[in-house]
Fold this protein.
Amino acid sequence: MDQEVEEIARVLLHKTGDSSEFIQKAADRSLGIMVGSVTPTRAMAALMASGVNHRNPPVRKCAAEHLLTVMEQIGAEKLLSGTRDNTELLVQTLLKLAQDCNQDARFYGRKMLNVLMPHPKFDGYLKQSLPSHDLKRPESVFVIVILKTLLPKGDFEFFCPNTRSRSDTLAPAQPVVRRSSLRSVEAMEQLKELNKLLMAKDFQTRMEGVTLLVEHCRNNPQLVSANIIQIFDAFALRLQDSNKKVNQHALESAASIIPILKDGLHPVVVSMVTVVTDNLNSKNSGIYTAAVRVIMNVSLSLSDNALLLQAFASRVHFISGRAMQDITEHLSALVSSVYSRKPQAVERHTLPVLWYFLNNMIGNGVLPGRSGNVRTVVCKLVKSLYKEMGRSLEDHASSQPQHVIKSLRDLLDMELQ
């Protein structure tokens, strides 16, 4: 299996995120057997390549769990004795996992760091992966505080560059941690209850979880905003629930809470757009209408639409049909509001979408595949871009293939008539 481990690990990890619990468990069990049988370094490389950066939280959790097994098998001495680039990549990956939005992935990430901590070289690699200016970020300090709790007192000392005391690095965070712990017991219980309902097997209980989330947003929006990544980890699954009633209820609820949370949604905007846009191809009119409302509300509620522009642009390449056309229209509408403030963002994210369409359209605007005729939405996109960029739009097209340049000129000539 050594020669096949990377590809099979990729497929099995993908299946651990399947909606079927039976398939999840079977894939996880198969992956565990394979990882325990092949060369450990090959297994580690495959898990890092295909799992720890996966956008699906359950997949990241599964990859982290098996990666921990492999790392314990290899040992800290060998793990930290490889090439400098590989070792730095490993430590950076584990630090990222230790801050993951998924609770289980965070747990395994911190356990893996715990495996490396006794090695004398670890402090050096940790300092390189968390430069002094990053240590000022709350999430980085939080990880270090949590790491210390995993070990007996004195086992983990982190020396921050340009400071004389090893404990000084953590000193500013201590009062914050104490105050937070005193106030957060009730909040943590509420979040625990919410997560339990949202992840329930019974669809009616999941419906109750969605309703409870709406109540929390109305009664205590600060609680939701402060824990939005953790909450969305479970709520995102309901936005694509296999039960149509739950799916529609979650989308309608999302539309209602967006104007309440507004910029508090910023950390999960890209994930939300990714999940919601898949519903734009639903044949269920209620689900489609609710998904459209979510997209409209998020467009109206954010103070800075540049991130939303990036999210829409990235989705065009991964969706088809009505969803592609709807998102392209929203993208056209965003161009005018973003370009005046951040022209480079429009050029970086929206122009590649236009080149994609012009490079692949055939006939009178048909995009091969399941997307049908996209000429109307592409014309709108060209019109929006030309209105803001003028003739410089053609200058940006100069590096594109000749048929793309010609298609753009034809559309511009039609718009300018």
User: Anything to note?
Assistant: The two ends are 63 Å apart (CA to CA). The chain has three domains: 2-129, 184-302, 304-417. The first helix runs from residue 5 to 15.
